[in-house]
Design a protein that fits this description.
STAS_dom_sf, 2 domains, transmembrane helix, elongated, 5-stranded mixed beta sheet, Transcription Regulator spoIIAA, membrane
């Protein structure tokens, strides 16, 4: 993979990688700081994550275009973990997630994400956006709340009071307005979020505004708050297995969805299993630097592609640019107002919604898809990621099974007057049973009831062209009907049997019981040969 990627590499391509890396870094700085804060960790943790992940995961990634770092969705998941287990808990959960992702890549389990219905992903994303936006209420308004979950935080205002600070609120509102009205063509040159951060920081420093700021930014990529092997204990690890699995699941979903989207943009497919290995190794190492979980980020990845990224060096250059910024600008970064980051996050949360997909669901009134969307959205806000996705998938399966159980059975009498080869005046008590839909335990009862009136017919022809599959339960219904017909010296014939159904007939021994003469290509062929 690397050999093909760097084939014909020259100074011109190196220059493109360097410029693309610097462009991505400009986008990543405000996002890394904001996601570090919104996760409940620190801005420094977000920056360290972007640097370490940018170097390590980019080097091992399953595609040259993937840019990894902290994301909004991951930050939302971490809020609950930090509230319950603290920063140490996040480090341990990240390590667990890394191990799970590494194993998923080794055992080629990336395909599992394809089993999650699209409305579930859309609902989960919208739920995460709500958590991010409302999770910034304190930073946005300068208020104070308590509680581990979003609902608990909002509920705490009833006892603590909600008294917004004018300077903080005004700054956050102005940042939101600025980001929405900033011309898109200018945004391609310099990210609006970066300009907003620079301007608000300058205003805060010059006028010495009384607003909360990011606080101390270390001048080292190794934080004082980091995971130490000696701090691990078995009970804590056990408690954090579920949060770790949630982080791993989200990392898998985000990274592979990002890769699929970027692959369509570049025409070069992502090696999904290698990507999971890279994400796994990266997240196993990040806690020892003081970083939070990382995953491939579509915003930074798309910027890299549009900026002319040629190889994975773009991701490495972006990380090095962040490192230089951290070393040189740490005192200034420490003065960044939290209100400005809150404004950036509110806009980010709005934009991360899959609005085109949501509009499509409502416009076309897809009831089952809308049920999955709202169920996952509400579950994400009220419960957690794993619960939300599991509920969405399980309900999706129930809906699928319910729809699959709808069996169309049409019984038509054979009108011999319309059959060319039939003798004039010939009469017969024959019927054709046209079946459409899968035959399995959920539809077996419907089939049995449809066949009840046909037990006295001299000949029954089953047309199974519309039956893609059959299970043992439905097979038993057909066998019982056939055996009853044999006892009464009636005939049963099958036409247009699909390959999968024929295999079941063979495995069950029914083909041998009925005989090969009982199977025809079509109903017309049956009637022509009999008559």
């Amino acid at each position: 993979m690397l050999k093909d990627e760097f084939k014909g590499y020259n100074l011109a391509k190196l220059a493109k990688d360097l410029m693309a890396g610097l462009t991505v870094a400009a986008v990543a700085i405000p996002l890394a700081l904001a996601f570090g804060v919104s996760s409940g960790a620190t801005a420094a943790a977000g920056l360290i994550t972007a640097i370490v992940a940018g170097i390590l995961i980019s080097t091992l990634s399953g595609a040259y275009y993937q840019i990894s770092g902290p994301t909004g969705a991951m930050a939302a998941v971490l809020m609950g973990v930090i509230a319950q287990y603290g920063l140490k808990g996040v480090f341990i959960a990240t390590l667990i997630a890394g191990i799970i992702l590494l194993l998923a890549g080794i055992f080629k389990l990336g395909v599992l994400t394809t089993f999650i219905p699209a409305p579930v992903i859309t609902g989960f994303t919208s739920g995460i956006s709500i958590i991010i936006a409302f999770g910034q209420l304190d930073n946005f308004f300068g208020t104070h709340s308590t509680g581990g979950s979003l609902i608990e935080k909002i509920g705490s205002y009833s006892s603590l009071g909600f008294q917004p600070k004018l300077a903080t609120t005004l700054m956050a509102v102005l940042v939101v307005i600025a980001l929405f009205i900033f011309p898109k063509k200018w945004n391609k040159v310099v990210p609006a979020s970066l300009i907003a951060i620079i301007v608000t920081t300058a205003i805060t420093m010059v006028f010495k505004l009384d607003v909360a700021t990011v606080g101390k930014i270390p001048t080292s990529v190794i934080s004082g708050d980091r995971l130490q092997l000696g701090s691990l204990d078995l009970q804590t690890v056990k408690n954090l297995i579920v949060p770790g699995a949630s982080i791993a699941l989200l990392g898998m979903i985000e990274s592979l969805l990002c890769g699929a989207s970027a692959g369509r943009m570049t025409g070069k497919a992502l090696d999904s299993n290698q990507e999971l290995i890279a994400q796994g190794i990266g997240n196993m190492i990040l806690p020892f630097f003081g970083g939070i979980p990382a995953t491939a980020a579509i915003a930074r990845t798309s910027v890299a592609i549009k900026s002319g990224a040629q190889t994975r060096l773009t991701g490495i250059f972006h990380a090095l640019a962040l490192l230089v910024s951290m070393l040189l600008l740490a005192p200034i970064m420490a003065q960044i107002p939290l209100a400005a980051l809150a404004g950036v996050l509110v806009v980010t949360s709005w934009r991360m919604n899959e609005w085109s997909a949501i509009k499509y669901l409502f416009k076309n009134k897809f009831k089952s898809a809308l049920i999955l969307f709202f169920l996952t959205l509400v579950s994400t806000v009220i419960f957690d990621l794993s619960t939300a996705i599991m509920m969405g998938v399980m309900v999706g399966i129930v809906i699928f099974v319910a729809k699959s159980s709808i069996l169309d059975v049409v019984v038509e009498d054979v009108d011999l007057s319309k059959v060319e080869t039939a003798q004039e005046g010939l009469k017969a008590d024959w019927a054709v049973v046209y079946i459409t839909g899968p035959l399995f335990f959920m539809s077996a009862d419907r089939l049995d009831k449809a066949l009840q009136p046909l037990h006295e017919r001299d000949l029954v022809i089953f047309s199974l062209r519309g039956v893609p599959s059959i299970d043992n339960t439905a097979m038993a219904v057909i066998q019982d009907f056939y055996q009853d017909a044999q006892k009464k010296n009636h005939e049963v014939i099958f036409s247009s049997v699909q390959p999968n159904v024929m295999k079941m007939f063979e495995r069950s021994g029914f083909e041998e019981t009925a005989g090969k003469d009982a199977f025809y290509f079509s109903v017309d062929r049956v009637l022509k040969e009999i008559l």
